[in-house]
Structures are given as structure tokens and as C-alpha cells.
Amino acid sequence: MSAATSRRPSMLERRSSAMSSRRPSIDPSRLVPMDKTTAHTGNEFNVVFVGAGNIMFGSDEGPWNHSFRFEHKLGPRLKVVALIDPAIERATTVLQKKCESFVRSAYENTRVFKTLEDYVNSFDRKSPPQAFVVGSPPMFRGTTKPGRDIEIQILNHFPNVALFIEKPVTTGPSEEIEEAFKVAKFISDKGTITSVGYMLRYLKAVQMMKQIIDDNNLTVMATIARYATAYEAIAKPDWWNKSKSAGPIVEQGTHFCDLSRYFGGDVDISTVSAHSVEWYENAGHLSKQSIDETAIPPEDRVPRVTAATWKYEGGAVGSFTHLVALQGHDYSCELEVYADGYQLKLVNPYVQPVLYVRRPGSDLEESHRFPDDDPFFSEISVWIDNIEDIEEDPETAQILCTFDGQCHPIGQQAVADGERFTDACKSYELTWAIREASERTRNLKRAEAAPIQA
Ligand SMILES: NC(=O)c1ccc[n+]([C@@H]2O[C@H](COP(=O)([O-])OP(=O)(O)OC[C@H]3O[C@@H](n4cnc5c(N)ncnc54)[C@H](O)[C@@H]3O)[C@@H](O)[C@H]2O)c1
């Protein structure tokens, strides 16, 4: 046997080969509910949380709360070895609460650091981290620029850890979109097990839609998405300020742009067109904002409606309407996917998902309900299974959204299978294309309306 053939495959090669044989979808019956998780006995699972905010520890704003899902997935094995957040008081307060509860063992030795650098300088070498969960605001990550390059810094110091990164992968000026792709390449070259927080892909309803498409060998003709925010409940002033949050499409509509791409494939970005209703238009007047919008510079105020269309590279057409229009608490969101003879309509994915299916040769609409489905748990669970089982169990469910599919073997496999692989950087790129297209048409309209200069 030659040296080349007897060489033991590197970790990257082993991971790549295990992952390339996996499907970019999951049989919905294999998504294990939180209350049916089996208790793994085994080693402690050391994780670092970056960010002590709502996504990590929960709030009244919604069902997100990663720490809660980690506790249920790992039980007594969970050890949060560090919590990194410049807001030390916030971090200390959330830890204190955890230590007063039955999950104390996961947090009693957690150390709080202001920065990653502080952690690197004094971390306990007897408890090295296996994984980092990055839930800091997106403007502090997803680039190669100092202070906004936490993924690169983490992997430089801890090359073997896995990463979970919240959506969107970054925010910043649109000229910097390429930065996210550079970070993606860096992560991909390291062979890091990475998942990005587009949890809607893990909904059982979404996986059932994928299964219907796969089983019937369908070609998607169109995706129609609508996301109507309950704006009254949004009390964070930054959300209303485009210079802080990047605006509702990049920050929030991103979930539905990503889901559209999960079904439609990659978008021909040059085809994206969009219109908006702006805050200064009659139709854009809102009567129940819970913030003082006059404190936000006029040019930074968010649009009330953004309606976009585009062509997918595979030939289908996509459309997305985002609305800042509803009051109360719950959002109203729907995604329709069409193929020859089929309509797959996903309703209310955040609160109580229902999937309506119309099949060829029939006017009837079947409805499917998925009580107690928790996509936040499923995405964490699948990511941890990949970290723990990657080499032993090729049946481990596949991570459904990575940072970048371009240089990843899963992507090549999926395209070879005729199924388009989609990824988080491209979703970020699409959201910016929509925002910019809507601002272009807005500016044209304004220029038309402006009095002709003498
Ligand atoms: N998947 C979802 O449904 C979902 C839901 C909510 C939030 N998110 C995402 O999670 C991220 C955080 O949102 P949030 O609601 O928790 O925000 P938040 O404002 O509640 O918390 C952010 C925390 O990060 C800290 N922080 C700021 N700069 C930091 C840095 N450089 N390093 C470490 N920590 C830093 C802040 O002090 C704060 O405690 C955003 O990207 C958001 O879009 C996703």
C-alpha cells in the first residue's frame, strides 16, 4: 500500500466525507422534541456564550432563549465555562438567576469576561471550550476587520471548536458584503462545524414541505413570502433606526428571505427589484409606536412596507413583502411554494405552524398541524449531535444552514443531486439587494416629485 493510500484522513477530510453523504433536509420524524430527548451520559460539554442578551437568555419578545435549549439538550453535562459581554452587569445578573435555579450546575463556575481577548488571556486550560455560541449584535461580527472579526479570532485561538452564529451573519455598509464571504471561506477552510441561526428551516412543517418536493421530484416555480410585524411590541429604539439595525429587511425579513432561498435556491441578485411605503407617506403613518421616532434622524427611519420580486438562478420567481403594520403582539407570516400541481402554504410559523397542501388533480386543501414543535431546540440539538457524533454516525441529521455553501462539500453534493444548497451569506446578500432596490425606487419617486430647479 502506498503512503498516500495508507495515510489516515485528516479531521477536515473525515468531517467532509461524513457531511457530504448527508441530505440538506431532515425526515421530520427524526426531529426529536425537547421532552423526548434521551439523557446522554458522557463527558461534560464546555461551551462559551458570546452575548448575554435576549437570544441567549430569553425575554418577553419571543420564544428565543438558547440557554434554555442547551440545558434541555445536555442536562447536567452542560458547562458554560465563560460568558463574554461588555455589559458585565447584565451578564452577572442573568448568571445569578440561573444559579438560583435547578440548572445551577451549568453556571456555577461560569466566568464573565468583557472581551474574547480577556477570556483568551486567562481561560482555564483544564476546561477548554468545545463550542462557542455567538449571539452578540451582528455589527460586531462577520467581517475580517478588527473588533468585528470574532469568528476569526475564536478560530485563531481555538482552532478545533464548533461555532453557532446568530443571524444575520453580519451587518454594516452594503459595500462590505464581501467581508462575510471572506469569513465564510476562513471558517470553511478550517473545517469548523458551523450552524447559523435560521431556525425556521428546522420546523417540522418546513421539512415536510421539503419532503413533498423531494419525494415527488418537483421543480419549484415560485415562492411568495409575507412577513407582517406587530410593530406595537417593538420597543427597542435601535430596531427603528436603519443606521443601527440595518433596517427591517436585513434584521428581521432575513428569516423569510432565507426560507425563500431554502426552497427557491440561489437568487440572481441583478434581478431584485422593490418598492416601499416610507414613514413620510400618508400610507406609512403609524398610530401606536412604542418609541419616540422623532429622536431618529429622518433618513434613518424604517420603511413601513417593502415589496420585492426576483428571479432565482434555477428559473423560479420569488416575491417577499415585509410590513410594519400590525399592532398587538403576534406577527402574521406566510410562505407559499408552488410547483406543477402543488401549492404548499406555511402559515404562522412563529406561533402555531400550519401547513396547507394542495396536490395535483384536486381542489382540496389538506391541513397539517405540528403541536409543540420547537425549531430553536431542533437547531441546537442537530448542531450538538454533529459536534458529538460526526465521525461515528453518518445518520446524524444535517445542519441545515451553514455560513457559506460555496466552498463546502455539502454544497457540491447538493448541487450534484439537483438540489440547490443555500447558505447564510447569500441570504444576507439578498436582504441588502432588496433594501437597496427599494431605496433606489424611493429616490426616483422623490426626484420626480421634487420641484424643478431653476
Ligand atoms: N433567531 C432568532 O429568532 C433571533 C431572535 C432574537 C435575536 N436574534 C439575533 O441574536 C443577536 C442578538 O440579539 P439580542 O436580541 O440577543 O440582542 P440584545 O441587545 O438583547 O443582546 C445583545 C447582547 O450582546 C452584548 N454585546 C454587545 N457587543 C458585544 C460584543 N462585542 N461581544 C459580546 N457581546 C456583545 C450586549 O451588551 C447585549 O448584552 C442578533 O443578531 C439578533 O438578530 C435572533
UniProtKB/TrEMBL annotation:
<feature type="domain" description="Gfo/Idh/MocA-like oxidoreductase N-terminal">
    <location>
        <begin position="45"/>
        <end position="198"/>
    </location>
</feature>
<dbReference type="Pfam" id="PF08635">
    <property type="entry name" value="ox_reductase_C"/>
</dbReference>
<dbReference type="InterPro" id="IPR052515">
    <property type="entry name" value="Gfo/Idh/MocA_Oxidoreductase"/>
</dbReference>
<protein>
    <recommendedName>
        <fullName>Oxidoreductase C terminal-domain-containing protein</fullName>
    </recommendedName>
</protein>
<dbReference type="Pfam" id="PF01408">
    <property type="entry name" value="GFO_IDH_MocA"/>
</dbReference>
<feature type="domain" description="Oxidoreductase putative C-terminal">
    <location>
        <begin position="201"/>
        <end position="342"/>
    </location>
</feature>
<dbReference type="InterPro" id="IPR000683">
    <property type="entry name" value="Gfo/Idh/MocA-like_OxRdtase_N"/>
</dbReference>
<dbReference type="InterPro" id="IPR036291">
    <property type="entry name" value="NAD(P)-bd_dom_sf"/>
</dbReference>
<dbReference type="InterPro" id="IPR013944">
    <property type="entry name" value="OxRdtase_put_C"/>
</dbReference>
<feature type="region of interest" description="Disordered">
    <location>
        <begin position="1"/>
        <end position="31"/>
    </location>
</feature>
